[in-house]
Each structure stands twice: as C-alpha cells, then as structure tokens.
Write a structure and sequence with these properties.
single chain, 206 residues, mainly beta, 3-stranded antiparallel β-sheet, 2 helices, 12 strands, 6% helix, 56% strand, globular
Length: 206
C-alpha cells in the first residue's frame, strides 16, 4: 500500500494535505497509524483505516505551515485483518448494501460568488444526504473532493452523526478559502462497516 506524493492545497490561513492510498486486495482490510513530515519535523499524526479494494484520499485539514516544501507521508504501523468469507462471500455486494448513500441538490458557490462575508473569503456548499441503505450509523465521515475538470483542487470534510436508515439530511457548510474554478464536487462516505460498533442499535433509533 504505497502512498502517493503528498498534495498541498491552500485553504484560508492554513493548508490541507492529501495523499492517495490504494488497497489492491479484496480479502484484507487494515487499521493504520500515520504521520505527515516536513524533513525531520512531524506535522500531523493520526489513525485511519482502509477497506478491501479501496482507493482512499486521506486528508488532514487546516494545518499551519511555514513552507509547503518537502512534505512527506509515512505509515508508521499497520494492522492487516482478513475478512471472513463465511460471513462475507462477496465483498462488493456487502459494501454496496451498507454504503448506499445518495447526494442530492449539490450546490457550491466559491468565495467570489457566495457573498457570505465582505471581510473574509468563504466558500459555501449545500447538499442533502439520503441514506438509502437498511443500516443506521453512529457516525459517518464524508470526504468532499473538489475538482477542476479532472484535477483535484481542494478538499473538505463533514462528520454526520446518528445517520439513520431512510433519513434525508440537509447539510450547509462554509469555510475560508477561494475555490474559484470548481467544475465537479464528489462526496465519499467513509465508515468501517466491518466493525459492529459503528451501527446504531435498535434502541438508539428512537
């Protein structure tokens, strides 16, 4: 699971870092610890996961950097786990049954057009999440990717809590920066569906 070169995006007074990871194996998933470095200096460390056959853009947002040169990414430790084929005979079917979200009414305005503040440039994004799966979740991370044609030019995140089956939830976000050439917005839901504790229990649905 070799990481790509780190991409750096200016966002307001900070910087966002993005690195691409690919798990080419459909039999294993992993938890891992990672760090971003600049030379010998540690910028940011964290924990994450990657599912079987997943292409994942890992991002760290709003970092203060003196320079954007020489930034690298390293997986410090990784814990691989084999999926149980007696319980999950077809990974793609298992995944699609659980990660079945629709994103409706996506509306993005760059800072130049949003008019949210005269003193601070703020981008604005509105959309609705519809959970079309039969599963409910305590938390789902939504990675939001902004493209100019085929080129990634910015990232953002939204944490959805208590996402229930059949629920349609409106989302409104604003953040500093100037994404003036966005032609496409992609929203990627991420939750480790292989862990029982991510699912809302029946008594928590009411």
């Amino acid at each position: 699971m070799a990481p790509s070169k780190v991409e750096v995006f200016k966002s307001g007074n900070g910087y966002d870092l993005v690195v691409s990871l690919q798990n080419e194996n459909d039999n294993f998933w992993a938890d891992f610890d990672y760090c971003f470095y600049q030379g010998d200096k540690t910028i940011k460390c964290g924990q994450d996961f990657i599912l079987p056959s997943e292409n994942y853009l890992l991002s760290s947002l709003g970092l203060e950097l003196d320079s954007t040169l020489g930034i690298t990414f390293k997986i410090e430790d990784i814990f691989w786990r084999r999926i149980n084929r007696r319980q999950i005979s077809d990974w793609n079917t298992y995944y699609q049954e659980r990660i079945n979200f629709q994103f409706l009414d996506i509306y993005f305005l760059s800072a130049l057009k949003s008019g949210l503040s005269e003193n601070l440039k703020l981008n604005r994004l509105e959309f609705s999440i519809f959970n079309d799966s039969p599963y409910s979740y305590y938390q789902v991370n939504f990675d939001i990717l902004f493209y100019s044609k085929d080129k990634l030019i910015g990232v953002q995140k939204y944490l959805g809590e208590n996402i229930k089956t059949g629920e349609k939830r409106p989302v409104k976000l604003s953040w500093p920066g100037d994404l003036s050439s966005v032609s496409q917005v992609k929203i990627i839901p991420r939750v480790n569906i292989l862990k029982d504790e991510v699912y809302l229990k029946y008594q928590d649905l009411f």
